[in-house]
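Narrative of accomplishments. A recurring question from our advisory board has been how the design workflow behaves on a single, concrete structure rather than in aggregate. To address it, we present the structure tokens for one chain from the evaluation set, followed by the sequence designed for it. No filtering or post-editing was applied between the two.
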């Protein structure tokens, strides 16, 4: 009987070690994907207008909260900006696609702003797109790149550099009203700031560059995170395109429901091309895809009218 004790002791040690190992792995997963890590608490207004004198004067004159505006359920117009949203339903009943296009023109690029969930920069900090938008009195908003899901990327928001860990193809929105994709490992954050970049978004891929649709989108992977898979198949999508300086199109595609299957990356690129975009970039999609306008969500997030929390938004506001 006494000979059994060493065996029981060894079993107990093995079980304890296994529990510690499993507990450690679970904690690492929770720390990576669930536990909030606040790095910077952001002031309510952090927008940095263009640096040259002429643009400074424009920024001051076009962000007045006194601008007279006209609006209805799908349109907004003021001296500062125009927003026109349309819902499009395509294809047959057996293969439906529903998407929303917001045609946006602004008098100054600094009117396109970014905001973080809980006004905090860090990982795993999330709020619904509509809640972040309401907190910032946004007229229009879409979900951003969900930067908080990862720890890399070059993150410039409202002219401020928050993270400088080059990793992938990103997009930059400039103070002159243009946008362009770039390789984070080839263009430094210092260069971007020197060139008056107001926003960078790190997700991808680029869909249109210099007026041409990007080829070979079938097997794109944007991350090496646990569970990452190709994103090229039909999915809900969010993207941003530029038609000309200070003239943008924001597109949100519904999916994963009987009303809309979503679109592939190739279809998404073609959609932006059909809209006349000379540059276009894919943002976080799937359950995150949300378009907000004048106090309401206009699309159908997750195919069940249920938003998923995100780490950031792009939005338009008058003040």
């Amino acid at each position: 009987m006494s000979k059994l004790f060493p065996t029981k002791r060894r079993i107990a040690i093995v079980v304890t070690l296994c529990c510690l190992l499993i507990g450690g792995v679970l904690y690492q997963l929770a720390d990576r994907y669930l536990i909030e890590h606040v790095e910077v608490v952001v002031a309510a207004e952090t927008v940095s207008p263009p640096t040259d004198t002429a643009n400074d004067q424009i920024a001051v004159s076009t962000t007045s909260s006194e601008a007279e505006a006209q609006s209805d359920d799908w349109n907004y117009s003021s001296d500062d900006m125009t927003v026109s949203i349309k819902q499009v339903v395509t294809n047959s009943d057996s293969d439906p696609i529903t998407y929303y296009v917001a045609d946006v023109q602004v008098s100054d690029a600094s009117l396109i702003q970014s905001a973080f969930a809980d006004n905090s920069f860090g990982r795993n900090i999330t709020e619904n797109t509509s809640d972040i938008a309401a907190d910032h009195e946004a007229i229009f908003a879409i979900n951003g790149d969900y930067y908080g899901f990862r720890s890399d990327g070059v993150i410039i928001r409202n002219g401020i550099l928050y993270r400088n860990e080059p990793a992938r193809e990103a997009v930059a929105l400039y103070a002159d009203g243009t946008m362009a994709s770039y390789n984070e490992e080839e263009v430094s954050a210092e260069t971007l700031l020197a060139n008056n970049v107001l926003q960078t978004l790190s997700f991808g891929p680029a869909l249109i560059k210099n007026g041409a649709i990007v080829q070979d989108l079938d097997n794109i992977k944007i991350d090496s995170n646990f569970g990452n898979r190709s994103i090229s198949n039909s999915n809900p999508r969010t993207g941003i395109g530029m038609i000309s300086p200070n003239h943008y199109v924001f597109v949100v595609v519904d999916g994963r429901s009987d009303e809309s299957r979503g679109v592939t990356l190739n279809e998404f690129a073609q959609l932006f091309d059909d809209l006349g975009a000379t540059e276009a970039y894919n943002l976080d999609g799937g359950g995150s895809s949300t378009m907000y306008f004048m106090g309401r969500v206009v699309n159908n997030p997750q195919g069940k009218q249920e938003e998923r929390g995100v780490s950031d938004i792009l939005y338009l506001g008058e003040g």
